[in-house]
């Protein structure tokens, strides 16, 4: 998986432009080749009706983690778009913080498949709460899509 | 599809408790038996890095629309949890507003399948931007899950 | 949705080369622009352990129906590959025959999204048993992939 | 993950009743608690139009592998039904044999999530060709569903 030497800065710059991440209170934790971790504080701002984190908020950080894992292996001029994803909610998302870790499963010429695992941390212990699989498309030479 | 006489109030009360919907600026539009529509204003608060609406925000309103469509057909004592969903992003989500319309596909004893279509409105015209399929589980007698 | 004038013959020729369709006893029923129907006789050859049709056989005809619906809207030199699909099994697949109807949801430049509904016919009545959503990729100029 | 002492025999007996597995030429390879492997010979009987293994045949062994991985962790009186699955086709499935390995991701009271990886073996080397995620439902006390 090639990517570019400055992959971590690319991801950080792009993440900073994702308004939704700031809105829900998510932040970029770690960026490695083929792997990206995003953290979300559990607050009422991201809740569903029973007080758990809304599946949409869980999906948001999982999708970004998977997409940016994909971006770390892209050539400099290519961006990445989510074509589709599927997420299983394994357990109610509760605790203090969620960690979404995205990893590249397969990087093809035009299609990249990535997964993200989401864990909830409570009193220092983590347990899995969601599993996402995403199909990403490498985009080259389309206006406004270079990350 | 039975549901309860006060299904619209049930959905409205529950929606009002979803902190994420307020955080991203989504609001409940219409509630009919087996069908629920949610509206989201397109603002930088819900953007991804290219300025389109983030797939996570699109998923959030689509998941809520599908889940609440399911709730309209549930008995009074039953709540609904999303087991999993899959979403295809059909086109970049841009424009002034997004409309997510959830509809029940099949209501079984314990499993409800629902779909949501998301359309983007721009200059008075709507075009489809996403299609979600969700598997919901009817929950009875579990503490804190009655909607 | 353009496609080619001889789309129905293209689909029929390609279908005849799908060994799996013959092996499980599936046949092509109707081919229209953007819509293809496949029929499968319910026999013990396609069963799972409880005597219903195996989810894999249901998926096989649904995937072919969705894929060929996509092929009807492709230019002459392009083939189609399934990138991924998701299927919900709505009810046990029993009866005399299954009908899988694939329809194009959105045909983009490189990505086509299609759905297939599968119905089971029993004593002249049909009921839905499965719903599939597929992401297809248009392939041009790759050896051996022109349908 | 509990399951029953005779889980391997349970899976073998049930697999032997899946007509589809015999029809496509699949056989049960290994059964461990929470993990099941199924093998499929690559022959024209399971092909699609380009000579690769049909996505439906790949899905069939992956679904059975995931489902039986789930069955190994079920109590004696419970059976398992596939509620839905999603599969990504990572590469054309070609070679001499396919191996589908199903593993339980999470076993809840009523819902079990399992994944299956499919690899193609060619000249003694294996490469991944598909990744499936399935939602299974534990069924108790329903006529005819005890495996």
Automatic annotation (TrEMBL), chains A, B, C, D:
Belongs to the YigI thioesterase family. Its EC number is 3.1.2.20. Keywords: Hydrolase. The lineage of its organism: Bacteria, Pseudomonadati, Pseudomonadota, Alphaproteobacteria, Hyphomicrobiales. This is Medium/long-chain acyl-CoA thioesterase YigI. The keyword Hydrolase applies. InterPro entries: HotDog_dom_sf, PAAI_dom, Thioestr_dom. It comes from Salinarimonas soli. Residues 50-122 form the Thioesterase domain. It is an enzyme of class 3 (hydrolase). It catalyses: a fatty acyl-CoA + H2O = a fatty acid + CoA + H(+); a medium-chain fatty acyl-CoA + H2O = a medium-chain fatty acid + CoA + H(+); a long-chain fatty acyl-CoA + H2O = a long-chain fatty acid + CoA + H(+). GO terms for molecular function: fatty acyl-CoA hydrolase activity. Gene3D superfamilies: Hotdog Thioesterase (3.10.129.10).
């Amino acid at each position: 998986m090639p990517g570019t030497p400055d992959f971590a800065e690319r991801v950080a710059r792009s993440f900073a432009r994702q308004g939704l991440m700031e809105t829900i209170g998510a932040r970029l934790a770690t960026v490695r080749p083929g792997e990206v971790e995003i953290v979300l504080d559990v607050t009422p701002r991201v809740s569903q009706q029973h007080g758990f984190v809304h599946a949409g908020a869980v999906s948001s950080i999982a999708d970004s983690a998977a997409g940016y894992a994909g971006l770390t292996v892209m050539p400099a001029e290519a961006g990445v778009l989510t074509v589709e994803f599927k997420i299983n909610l394994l357990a109610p998302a509760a605790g203090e913080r969620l960690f979404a870790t995205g990893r590249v499963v397969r990087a093809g010429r035009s299609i990249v498949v990535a997964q993200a695992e989401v864990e909830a941390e409570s009193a220092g212990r983590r347990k899995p709460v969601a599993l996402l699989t995403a199909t990403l498309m490498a985009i080259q030479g389309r206006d406004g899509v270079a990350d």
